[in-house]
Amino acid sequence: MTAVPGREPTVVVAAGVCTAVAQDVDSFWSALVTGADGISPIERFPVSDLRVGRGGEIKTLTRIDDWTGIPDCRATRLLVSAADDLCGQVGGRPLPVDPRRVAVVVGTALGGVEEGERALSGDRSGKRLRGALYDAPARNLARWLGVRGPVLTVATACAAGGTAIGVGADLLRHGQADAVIAGGYDILCRFVMRGFDVLRALTRDRVRPFDRRRSGLLLGEGAALVMLRRRAEAGPRVLGHVLGYATISDGSHVSAPHPEGRGLEHAIHVALGEAGIGPDRIDFVSAHGTATALNDPIESGVLMRVLGARASAVPVNSIKPVIGHTMGAAATLEAIMCLLASRHGLIPPTLNLDDPDPTFGIDCVRGAPRVARPRISLSTCLGFGGCNGALVLEGAPP
Amino acid sequence: MTQKEVLDEIKTIVVERLRFDPRRAADMTLDTTLPKGVEGSLGLDSLDFIELSVALEERFGVVIEEGEDLADDFLSMDTLSRFILTRAGHA
Amino acid sequence: MNAPIVRALGWRSGWGPGLGALPEDARRAAAGRPVVSLGRPALDEERFRRATRDCLWAVAAVGAMLEDAGARREAIAGARTALIYVTAAAYGPSNRAFIERPGAVYFPYTAPAAAPAEVAIEYGLTGPLTIFIGGGVSTLRAIWHAAGLLAGATCDRVLVLAVEIFDECADLYARVRSGEDPLVEAAGCAWLERGTGTLALEEGVATAGRDDVRRRVGETFSCEPLAALGLRRSVVAGAGPIAVSARWGGEEVTLIWGGPTSGVGAGMREGSE
């Protein structure tokens, strides 16, 4: 294990997911390595007026039979579903920790905005309106978990699922909690579909990261959570470790990343510095990989600079073609994927990457899963507002 | 539709959609350049060009596909108004 | 944890610029107005033509902080300044506008991240960035998080910035609030640097001092703890401990600056606002 002296890595004890292809971690892994496709026409709300009406929509939430007492708020329900998966791995609810010492830190790009849409379109209940606050779903999750520690909502846009893991690790390090449920979520709703549609960011084709024919992203919905502990309290069976993280502002533009990826590169170096390792130790990169005209060249350029001569030899993937860009959930889902790759000795392929853009010079995993057991993974994420995130993770041996 | 009429419509879009001061729009001529980074230009960035494209589609009934490289057409008020006239079938 | 020193604090609210403009009793001063608005700050109209009011006041609050510090913007530019942005609801107006207006508007400005982005662009900030959503409790956690960042090696200063904008959603607040303190639009920014005092964060407790601040300021959600800090500016180095409390979403938190070299207020210029 690696980290700066005196700085103990945070342990990832368990994980839970809720996505268009799977509602538990084991099925999620199977879906990633078998090339499942979670993209479908959106059915839950009208999309006929949009240029693109497809995404990684979750058709039915299958884990919870009885939603009594859980707010009728989709964001909350995705979070609860992921939490139910996670709890199943640590002995169920209540969690085996003093509830006053369990923190909830979740990242989101959209919070409870769909509740705002509902409140403005006829549902005049005060409860609906209060649910529109971006921190409402995290509080609902804490209530469902029965925990009473700090509850934080992190809103570094589409990097939020990574920032939340980092902030959660900091809470443990500074003694504000003994366990942290950290992660991210976001849902597909009219608001966000209209937003990305009007930005012309959505593709009519498949999502093809790092492909010559890439033409944009598709959105997805999901929630992903990890349980973080300090090493001494983690127990013997763990998923891995968070070695370092950073979310860096690039001060460049309100929606586009810095043209040379200056912020992302800085974030990677800060995260590596926190981990106490150099870029030569990176075995695998989970890329943000949105397949937009702008993202992929910037990101591959940054990886080329960070990895140097090793750039063509370090495997890179993007799982966004499988589940869509799940915004606040994306970085957490990708972090979980990194840890599962270490456990299973396989790197999931980048779906739909048929014709790699030769200008990129990075080694994208495509076609079939690659047999490799990465120890140290780097996961990158970018969001509106010049948010650039990096997580450095270490998988636990199987 | 004449180029002058197209120019006036674009000026309206510049005020209503791109939120420029009406006086700034009034000063615009066919020679006015648009992209940020070009000296003396209006200073539009990628987000403005998306907004502008949507507004042009709505106003003139033209179709602008994502992925089209229109940098040369969106260079100045002259090139943009000619582009609109061509797309709208008036040229 | 080492307590950071508050080198400067910028404050703007519907009551006027600076904390000196606060009334003794916000309820009485509001005279029945449910929202005390900030209006629009005087910023370059063309440069900020797209920006929503939350962004504008975020930029203005940092400007007020620089004024308070007697510093130029170069003093905070670069990668060694971290920014933590906190808001409970300042994104409300932009979200509402996007929901209600069928035409295309600038979607990226609906994200809470837009306000700190405009700040970063304006002042050239390229350091660590965090955004917390919530009321005063989140601001206190942001200060605690800032202390952690300062204890590490990733930055030399942290700006804790809080903004709340209500006017465009006044009718919606009227649905869920009645007969309470007026909603007072506000924007505050604290410039924190490494200090040598001690900082403690206590969960589940709030001190009575909070009520005095609230009585003067009104309801400002995330901005309230920054007003509390500013109002204690007469308490200079060595006079601690100082406690700042907040309540939000069922949580109660108190942040306590202590130790013989407590630096809250040190460096903050009396009467500069």
Task: Summarize the structure in words.
The complex is a heterotrimer of chains A (398), B (91) and C (273). Chain A has 398 residues and is an alpha/beta fold. In chain A, 30% of the residues lie in helices and 20% in strands. Chain A has an 11-stranded mixed sheet, with helices on both faces. Chain A has a two-stranded antiparallel ribbon with strand order 2-3. The radius of gyration of chain A is 19 Å and the shape is globular. Chain B is mainly α. In chain B, helix 1 packs across helix 3 and helix 1 packs across helix 4. Chain B has 4 helices and no strands. Chain C is of the alpha/beta class and 273 residues long. Chain C contains 8 helices and 10 strands. In chain C, helix 7 packs across helix 8. The two termini of chain C are 30 Å apart. Chains in contact: A-B, A-C, B-C. Chains A and C meet through helix 3, helix 4, strand 5, helix 6 and helix 7 of A and helix 3, helix 4, strand 5, helix 5 and helix 6 of C.
Quick recap of the structure?
The complex is a heterotrimer of chains A (398), B (91) and C (273). Chain A has helices at 25-34, 74-89, 113-120, 126-130, 136-145, 160-173, 190-198, 262-275, 295-307, 320-323, 330-344, and strands at 10-18, 40-41, 54-55, 102-108, 151-154, 179-186, 222-229, 240-249, 284-286, 315-317, 346-347, 363-364, 370-371, 376-383, 387-395. Chain A is of the alpha/beta class and 398 residues long.
Features:
heterotrimer, A: 398 residues, alpha/beta, eleven-stranded mixed β-sheet, two-stranded antiparallel sheet, 11 helices, 30% helix, 20% strand, C: 273 residues, eight-stranded mixed β-sheet, two-stranded parallel sheet, 10 strands, disordered C terminus
Work out the number of β strands of chain B: 0
Quaternary structure? heterotrimer
Helix content of chain B: 40-55%
Assign an overall shape of chain B.
Answer: globular
Cα-atom Rg of chain C, whole angstroms?
Answer: 17 Å
Arithmetic mean of pLDDT of chain C: 90
State the total count of DSSP E strands of chain C.
Answer: 10
Distance between the termini of chain C: 30 Å
The mean pLDDT of chain B is: 91
Estimated share of beta-strand residues of chain B:
under 5%
Helix-and-strand structural type of chain B: mainly alpha
Largest sheet of chain B: none
Beta percentage of chain C is 25-35%
Count of discrete alpha- or pi-helical segments spanning 4 or more residues of chain B:
4
First-last Cα distance of chain B: 9 Å
Main pleated-sheet profile of chain C: 8 strands, mixed
Residue stretches of chain B low in confidence (pLDDT < 50, at least 5 long) are none
Q: Shape of chain C from CA axes? A: globular
Approximate helicity band of chain C: 25-40%
